[in-house]
Design goal:
Blueprint (H helix, E strand, L loop, with lengths): L1 E2 L2 H7 L4 E2 L19 E6 L8 H18 L8 E4 L5 H11 L5 E5 L3 H8 L2 E6 L9 H8 L3 E5 L4 H5 L4 E3 L4 H12 L2 H16 L3 H23 L14
Parallel strand pairs: 1-2, 3-4, 3-6, 4-5, 6-7, 7-8
Helix pairs in contact: 2-3, 2-7
Length: 241
């Protein structure tokens, strides 16, 4: 058995090996000719489980706090990439909070256009409330130069590793505090960005494929030996890889 994250392993088969997902490294990467001029981005389906409404509320808190302490400073913006049944409600929420100047919806993007757009942002918000077995969107954003800020929902902490920040899922206050923290801590941001290349290298398609192959070869070898009754005992595969 192979699980894509520690959360999946614990929930479904504690003795399984853990191999995180690969990402499309040929599609998502740094693009030198794109200026990283924007602040925060969300990428995903606009459905309730993705936590976008909570992220908008947290962003409103961030803007309010910044206005209290830095009235003359430029305020950050949040861009929402994606579409879905919640879009109209989310746009209404933004309007009701009075932050339409700072939150922008640009709809669905894919392929090269998506990669180029992600290269424009410094931070990526992944505020999912549940149901994230791993979270490839984290790796895609990270590969494009975004520093991920993710909820502790299921497999998202595995997806971010030591190259991003994790907040308490479902908590507007926790997300707002995390955003304010990174905005005022350039040393932490530098430390996290330095960790990104090593984290991404472990999720290159060829690296992940090789890890799967090693486990499959070990399993096949175990079956061959066992079927020939050449050994009387068996050796379990490691709990995690």
């Amino acid at each position: 058995m192979i699980s894509v994250s520690e959360a999946v392993r614990k929930q479904n088969w504690p003795a399984s090996s853990v191999i995180g997902n690969p990402y499309r490294a040929k599609d998502f990467m740094m693009i030198p000719d794109v200026d990283r001029t924007n602040n925060f981005v969300f990428l995903g389906r606009l459905v309730s489980q993705k936590g976008v409404a909570m992220a908008i509320q947290a962003f409103h808190q961030v803007l309010t706090k910044l206005d209290e302490v830095e009235q003359d400073a430029d305020k950050p913006s949040l861009t929402i990439i994606g579409d879905g049944p919640e879009r109209e409600n989310l746009e209404a929420l933004v309007a009701s909070l009075g932050i339409k100047a700072y939150v922008h919806f640009i709809g669905f993007l894919e392929g090269r256009a998506l990669a180029r757009e992600l290269n424009r942002y410094r931070y990526q918000l992944v505020p999912s409330l549940y149901g994230e077995a791993f979270g490839n969107v984290v790796l895609e954003g990270m590969a494009c130069g975004c520093l991920p800020i993710v909820s502790n929902s299921d497999g998202l902490p595995d997806a971010v590793g030591k190259a991003g920040l994790v907040f308490q899922r479902g908590s507007v206050e926790s997300l707002a505090s995390t955003i304010l923290g990174i905005l005022h801590d350039p040393n932490l941001e530098l430390e996290l960005r330095r960790a990104a290349p090593a984290h991404l290298s472990a999720h290159q398609p060829e690296v992940v494929a090789a890890r799967y192959l090693r486990i499959l070869e070990a399993a096949a070898g175990y079956k061959r030996v066992n079927s020939l009754s050449e050994v009387a005992t068996t050796t379990a595969l490691p709990v995690s890889q």
